[in-house]
Design brief:
The protein is of the alpha+beta class. 27% of the residues lie in helices and 30% in strands. Helix 1 crosses helix 3. Pfam families: PAS_8.
Length: 373
C-alpha cells in the first residue's frame, strides 16, 4: 500500500490553507498560467512544481524550457479555487494512483468550461512520489490551444497598422490575443498581464464591462454589437462602437472576437492633441497632478515627465489661487480665458491667458488648460 507523504495537505482545510499561501507579485519570477500547458509534475517531498507551457502567449510560438518553482510561487497566478482544485487533484493521484479529470480555469461563476486535468502517481528510484498532471482534451477535440495560437498572427496582420481595439477570447475564457490598440485603450501596463489568462480573472486590469460582455457572449453563444461606455479599472470610461462576434471552428474550439473603435472613428485623438500648436495641459482635479501635456506645452513650460509625475501643478506652474480661479471658471462653463502667472520651469514667470474646460465624463473630472495668444 502506497503511503502518502506527510508533507501533503490531508484535509480540505489544509488544502485551502496551502492554496492561499501567497508570494508578493514583485517577487514572483514566474508561475503556472494554464495557457498552452503541456504537463506539470508535483514533487510533494520538495514541495515544488515542474511544468512546461508552449509559447501560446506569443506570436512567434516560442517554446519555453522546463520551469520549476516552489509550490506557492508556481500556483501564485491562479485563483484560490484553481489552487485548491490542483492540490486536490495531486492528492487524489498520490492516494489512489490516478485522479481527474478536474476542471480548472473556468469562469468565476462556472458559466465557462475550464480545462480538464488528469493526474497519475509515479514513484522514482529514490523513493520520491510524484504526481504527473496534464490536460485531457478528448479524442475528437483536436488541440484548441494550437488553433487559437494560429489565429493570433492572422489577427496581428490585419490590425497591426490601425488603431482598432481587438481582443480574442477562446471558448475556455482565456485571452489569446490583444492588439496594441486594446492594450493602450484599456490601460494595460503590460500585455503579459492578460495574455494567457482567463478574462474573468483579469477584471481589475481591463474593467468589468468588457469582461461581462465577453462572458455573456460565450454563455449565450451569441454575437453582440452596439455603442456604449466601457468602465476602465481606474474608474474612467471609454465610449466605443463595438462588435463582439461569437464563433466556432469545429470540435470544441470557439470564442469571442471583440473589435471596437472610438465613436469618432479610428482617428487617434492623442496624436491630434500632441500636434496642436497651442500649449495644452490636462490635470486631475482630485490630485492636481498633470496627467497629460502636448509637445507644445512641454516646450513652452520646460516640463519633463519626471516633474509631471512627481509634483502637482500647484507646486510647479501655477499658484494655488490661480489654479482655483481657473477651476472655478471651468465649473461655470465660462469661455473667457483667465490671465494668470505661469511659472515655467526654466525660472521665467509670465502672464498667460488660459482657457479652462472641465472634462466631467469620468468619476474624477479632468481640467484642460489651453493657452491663448
Amino acid at each position: 500500500m502506497q503511503l502518502v507523504p506527510n508533507s501533503l495537505p490531508q484535509t480540505e482545510a489544509d488544502e485551502e490553507e496551502a492554496a492561499e499561501v501567497a508570494v508578493p507579485q514583485s517577487k514572483r519570477p514566474h508561475g503556472l498560467t494554464l495557457a498552452g500547458l503541456q504537463f506539470f509534475i508535483a514533487d510533494i517531498n520538495r514541495k515544488s512544481l515542474i511544468w512546461h507551457e508552449i509559447g501560446s502567449q506569443s506570436f512567434d510560438s516560442e517554446v519555453r524550457d522546463l520551469q520549476e518553482a516552489p509550490l506557492s510561487e508556481a500556483l501564485g497566478l491562479l485563483t484560490p479555487e484553481d489552487k485548491r482544485t490542483i492540490l486536490r487533484l495531486v492528492q487524489g493521484a498520490i492516494r489512489e494512483g490516478s485522479a481527474g479529470p478536474f476542471d480548472v480555469g473556468g469562469g468565476a461563476d462556472h458559466r465557462i468550461p475550464g480545462i480538464p486535468l488528469m493526474a497519475y502517481r509515479y514513484q522514482v528510484a529514490d523513493g520520491r512520489v510524484l504526481a504527473i498532471c496534464f490536460p485531457s482534451i478528448g479524442e475528437s477535440d483536436g488541440n484548441p490551444g494550437h488553433i487559437a495560437l494560429g489565429l493570433a498572427p492572422i489577427l496581428q496582420h490585419f490590425v497591426a497598422s490601425t488603431n482598432r481595439i481587438v481582443c480574442l477570447v477562446d471558448n475556455f475564457g482565456y485571452v489569446r490575443y490583444a492588439s496594441e490598440g486594446f492594450i493602450r485603450a484599456f490601460g494595460v501596463g503590460d500585455a503579459k498581464l492578460i495574455l494567457g489568462r482567463n478574462i474573468a480573472h483579469v477584471q481589475k486590469r481591463v474593467g468589468r464591462t468588457i469582461v461581462s460582455l465577453c462572458l455573456a457572449s460565450l454563455t449565450r453563444r451569441a454575437s453582440a454589437t452596439g455603442r456604449g461606455k466601457f468602465l476602465l479599472p481606474a474608474g474612467d470610461t471609454l465610449e466605443l462602437s463595438y462588435n463582439a462576434m461569437h464563433f466556432r471552428i469545429g470540435g470544441s474550439f470557439g470564442g469571442v472576437l471583440f473589435s471596437a473603435g472610438q465613436v469618432g472613428g479610428d482617428m487617434d485623438f492623442a496624436k491630434v492633441f500632441n500636434v496642436a500648436s497651442a500649449p495644452m495641459l490636462v490635470i486631475n482635479t482630485q490630485t492636481r497632478m498633470i496627467i497629460a501635456a502636448n509637445q507644445s506645452a512641454m516646450k513652452a513650460y520646460h516640463l519633463s515627465q519626471e516633474v509631471m509625475d512627481g509634483k502637482p501643478i500647484t507646486e510647479t506652474l501655477l499658484h494655488p489661487k490661480s489654479y482655483a480661479t481657473l477651476l472655478q471658471t471651468a465649473q461655470q462653463n465660462s469661455d473667457v480665458p483667465q490671465s494668470v502667472v505661469v511659472n515655467a520651469l526654466n525660472g521665467q514667470s509670465k502672464k498667460k491667458r488660459l482657457k479652462a474646460v472641465l472634462l466631467d465624463d469620468d468619476k474624477v473630472p479632468k481640467l484642460m488648460l489651453e493657452a491663448r495668444s
